[in-house]
Design brief:
The protein has 402 residues and is α/β, with parallel strands linked by helices. It is built from 8 helices and 19 strands. The chain has helices at residues 68-80, 116-135, 202-215, 239-258, 282-289, 326-335, 373-376, 383-395; strands spanning 7-14, 37-38, 43-50, 55-61, 88-92, 138-139, 141-148, 153-155, 165-172, 178-185, 198-199, 218-223, 230-232, 269-278, 302-311, 315-319, 323-324, 340-344, 353-354. Helix 1 packs across helix 2 (116-135) and helix 3 (202-215) packs across helix 4. The longest helix has 20 residues, at 116-135.
Length: 402
Amino acid sequence: MTDINFLAGAAARPITPVLGQDPVFLAGFQSNRRATAVDLELYVRALALRTDTLSLVLVAVDLIGLTLPDVQEIRARVAECGVDPYGLIITCTHTHSGPDTIGLWGPQEGVTGRNLIYLELLKGYIVDTVVEALTFCCPVSMRYATTSLPVFVQNYRTPGLVDNEVATLQFVKPDGEVVATLLNLACHPEILDGESTLLSSDYAGAACNALEAAVGGVALHVSGALGGMLSPNVAERTPADVQHMGRAYAEVALAALTSAPLMEPACLELRRAELSLPQPNPLFRMVQELGLVRSRPEIDGCIITELAYIDLGPVQILTIPGELLPRLGFELKAAMPGPCRILAGIADDELGYILPDDEFIPPADYRNPGAQYEESMSLGPETGSRYLKAALQLIRGGSIAR
């Protein structure tokens, strides 16, 4: 018997931009990549978990990323709806075939790609999805499993250093109906590359669609430590390859869950921490000064970001405010008690790549970084160690659970 009154709910809404009005600039790769058609719809999906003392909502959005200022606005809106924003975590799948919600991929260099009208609608969709997921919470059991997805993941920066572990978590009603399934894999959703002009949730969306068709409920994908550069290893860069990898991902997750026993959730804890990070990157400063991305305040030359740690007993979820390199991901997973360890990247912020300090080689020319591409898209050489220290403190109980 469980010691807590544990409930779960889920909801989803499409967020695909309407084509034929304002141009939609696709995020990732290069500027002026204008969407011409829709391959796979983009969604916001939400998983709500509730006990008598805590309401937590984990959101997965099919976008390249959202920065903390946008997330803070969404928190303010959910608070107006009577939802405690402390328990809201917003992750982005990091698809490279969604609209530019950061601002770096507009019509030309020096012009933002952010569409404020779309962003306003998006924030409303997220708030509505969060409220719906919380409203329809019900008693559940849970099951979890870990497995692997061989072949499909490669590392362009450090060949051979790959985390292809698939972690999955499922919540089921007493009558057997699936409420939600959470999927976790460390790999950029970028099967459709810079030559594509299709809007798509990429393999992450294909996997969620396949899983929902197979077992029902809402499926969410959260990206793991995909930085530096974990990318799909597929024969072609076509919609057919998107479906192929997505189905393979869903199939291994479902196969692992089949033998996983249902159990009564015994705990739900959430710990949060703020993190101060120096920002010496001249490109990051330039794009803020030009107004391409949202500006954010600095304190003594540092910006503030956040991370969170969710404890479900045998399952833990640690959030990453950017794209963590797999070497650091392996270190954090080793520190988590397990047996099911989930790293949720691009969560509540998108600060670019997070490298180990000893791998950081500052580019001689940030505009033409060559082999130091990840460094050119990172805050700076201390980001990795500062994040690692804060994350380990959360894992070890260094912040008060609420």
